[in-house]
Amino acid sequence: MAEEHAPPHAGAEQPSLFAPDTAVTVKQAPVSLVEIALPSSDTALGACALPYQDHLRRTDHSPYTITCFLSDLRMLTEFLGYATPARGVTQERLGAWLEHLRHGRDTRPAPKTMARRITFLKNFFGWLQEIGALERNPTERIALARPAPPLPELLFEDEVARIEAAAAQDVRCHALVLLLLSTGLKKEEVMGLTPGNVDLSDPEHPAIEVRFPGQAKRWRERRMELPAAWTEVYQRYAQRYRPQERVFTCTDRNLNYVLASAVRRAGIQKRVTLQLLRDIYAVRQLRAGVSLDTLRERLGLSEEAWYETAEKYRKLAFPA
Question: Number of structural domains, the chain?
Answer without folding.
Answer: 2
